[in-house]
Amino acid sequence: MAEMTVELVAVERRLWSGSATLVSAQTTEGEIGVMPGHEPVLGQLVEAGVVAITTADGERIVAAVHGGFLSVTAKTVTILAESADLAEDIDVEAAKAVLSESGDDLEAIAVAKGRIRAVERA
Question: What is the average pLDDT across 70-82?
């Protein structure tokens, strides 16, 4: 099966890097699915979005991303997020607490909603 190199990077750290067969991400133009050999594209990630990666080994990596860009070439996909969390590292109860306690902090609410969606999709 064809593979591509994928990197998921947030401002503060690299979350995942490796070979994959499929990447899906939520962009401002809609959800995009990328397989090896995809036409080059640059997309803006939505705030509080979800990125899912199917690795070459068949594992599914899901992350909550908050803003940033998706860059696709024929052999690589680079996801550059303002902030991101792998679903396996997300504390759902803490995210729910943020929702109930954030008041007018729309960015904190959006990040918490994105984290909850990532866990639900994992």
Answer: 95
- 77: tokens are 């996909």
DSSP state of 121: H
Q: How far apart are CA 66 and CA 61, in angstroms?
A: 16
Q: Domain total for the chain?
A: 1
Q: Is the pTM of this model over 0.70?
A: yes
CATH value at residue 1: 2.60.15.10
Concatenating the DSSP letter of every residue in 43-109 gives EEBPTTEEEEEEETTS-EEEEEEEEEEEEE-SSEEEEEEEEEEEGGG--HHHHHHHHHH-TT-HHHH
Q: Which of 64, 52, 58 is nearest to 92 (CA)?
A: 64
**Domain assignment of residue 67, given as a range:** 1-121
